[in-house]
């Protein structure tokens, strides 16, 4: 029975590339049984394939090459391998948690984009409308003396910092909350807080950061949507306010403003779809 195999045969039999075998040889992870001194050809013994399977297994469970080199050394015992696998299991579990957060973030963003498409359709009609909005958990930061036209980006950045510290991300969904009143112009509007949506049940350390975890209440909302600019902002607010007043609609007297990007190019002029929402009692 054949015992020695060339690098090409070894690669083919073990479903691994020749380049990888050469690299393993270079860094001392898996070396050929012998090298022909005349032509430099590498040859592997069939008994080595078992140990190559160990390396492939360790790679499959996301073990760094540096750790693999340490594990396959002659000093590694079954006891040490068991300890390492316990450690690696913890690494994989943390990675699974990270991927699950990424999946949840992706789903939230997809749902938001679906909602944005619906809002754009309403915007084209140019009318006040009523729609049902599901409740959402939000992370909220107090914003004293912040006008909707002021630079509220630093407050949004504070929200992002808190989420990123726990390995989460802001999902491009920012909002403002302020009182529903008969303002004379948009310069009289001051926001109570800014917020972003977060996953239900999330645990965030917010002590001393002037933030709260709250909920965006489920219910029927009177809404109007538009492509936001400083010049048209107040006219849309007035249109919504007068509609509510003229129809005698009872509300919780809060405006929830959301802004969603129409473009993703940071060098272009800001282009946001904005919706004002006021919940009916």
Automatic annotation (TrEMBL):
Keywords: Coiled coil, DNA-binding, Repressor, Transcription, Transcription regulation. InterPro entries: DNA-bd_dom_put_sf, GyrI-like, MerR-type_HTH_dom, MerR_fam, Reg_factor_effector_dom_sf. Gene3D superfamilies: 1.10.1660.10, Regulatory factor, effector binding domain. It comes from the Bacteria. Residues 4-74 form the HTH merR-type domain. Pfam families: GyrI-like, MerR. SUPFAM superfamilies: Probable bacterial effector-binding domain (SSF55136), Putative DNA-binding domain (SSF46955). The keyword Coiled coil applies. Signal peptide: none annotated. Residues 85-116 form a coiled coil. The keyword Transcription regulation applies. PANTHER family: MERR-FAMILY TRANSCRIPTIONAL REGULATOR (PTHR30204:SF69), REDOX-CYCLING DRUG-SENSING TRANSCRIPTIONAL ACTIVATOR SOXR (PTHR30204). This is MerR family transcriptional regulator. It comes from Bacillus vallismortis.
């Amino acid at each position: 029975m054949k015992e020695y195999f060339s690098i090409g045969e070894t690669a083919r039999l073990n479903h691994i590339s020749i380049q990888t075998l050469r690299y393993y040889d270079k860094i001392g992870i898996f070396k050929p049984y012998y090298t022909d001194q005349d032509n430099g050809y590498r040859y592997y013994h069939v008994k080595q394939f078992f140990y190559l399977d160990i390396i492939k297994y360790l790679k499959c469970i996301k073990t760094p090459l540096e750790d693999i080199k340490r594990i396959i050394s002659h000093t590694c015992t079954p006891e040490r391998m068991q300890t390492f696998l316990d450690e690696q299991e913890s690494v994989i579990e943390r990675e699974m948690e990270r991927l699950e957060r990424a999946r949840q973030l992706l789903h939230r963003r997809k749902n938001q984009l679906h909602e944005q498409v619906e809002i754009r359709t309403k915007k084209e009609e140019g009318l006040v409308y009523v729609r049902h909005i599901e409740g959402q958990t939000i992370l909220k930061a107090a914003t004293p003396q912040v006008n909707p036209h002021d630079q509220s980006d630093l407050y949004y950045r504070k929200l992002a910092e808190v989420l990123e510290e726990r390995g989460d991300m802001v999902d491009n969904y920012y909002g403002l909350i302020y009182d529903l009143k008969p303002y004379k112009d948009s310069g009289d509007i001051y926001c109570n807080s800014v917020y972003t949506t977060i996953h239900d049940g999330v645990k965030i350390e917010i002590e001393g950061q002037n933030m709260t975890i709250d909920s965006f209440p489920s219910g029927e909302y009177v809404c109007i949507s538009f492509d936001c600019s400083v010049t048209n902002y107040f006219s849309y607010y007035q249109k919504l306010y007068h509609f509510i007043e003229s129809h005698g609609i009872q509300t919780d007297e809060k405006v929830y403003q959301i802004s969603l990007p129409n473009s993703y190019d940071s060098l272009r002029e800001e282009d946001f779809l904005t919706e004002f929402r006021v919940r009916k009692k």
